[in-house]
Amino acid sequence: MAQTTDTALLDGGRRLPLVEDFYTIQGEGYHAGKPAYFIRLGGCDVGCRWCDAKYTWNPRLYPPTAIETVVARALSCPAQAIVITGGEPLLYPLDALTGRLRDEGLEIFLETSGTHPFSGAFDWVCLSPKRQHPPLDEAYARADELKVIVETEDDFAWAERNAARVGEACRLYLQPEWSRSEQMMPAIVEYAKAHPEWNVSIQTHKYMRIP
Known about the structure:
By secondary structure, the chain is an alpha/beta fold. It is built from 7 helices and 9 strands. It has a 9-stranded mixed sheet with strand order 3-1-2-4-5-6-7-8-9.
């Protein structure tokens, strides 16, 4: 689980615990297939047992990096879209980072569990709620996309409870947990066919063998 980073070292969000940043193709959800520059921050207090980015959980492993450094690298590639992810990026004040990216005319997407108060300005918010640490109320109103990870058939009921709380325009996605995708995909397909307000998301980047 997350160990806290000394907030004084973050300088009000002008420095952030950067795990990695890279140019790739968005693999999941509504924007799947879109070239995007990913900014992955360290630290997470949700602790999903099936998480494929457990290396991000302890922010103390990632010394705070100046946001100007990250923005400069993002501007060096052709991407017009930025994905801020983690870990859980809302552990940190994101106003300074998103402000700089917005100044450069970039689209800013957020991937979050919704477990912490919002900061920053975003063009698109993907909310991925987790049972063991549900989202804050404010997260549902901010969600443009609801992406629920399906590990067992019990997760369909969890998905519906979350769908009932987002806005009418929010896009709904069911995504199989990667290690269970072969077992769960038939049930997900049938559920989406019976409930066509739901779409199916798969982790296409893993099939493409890209980050």
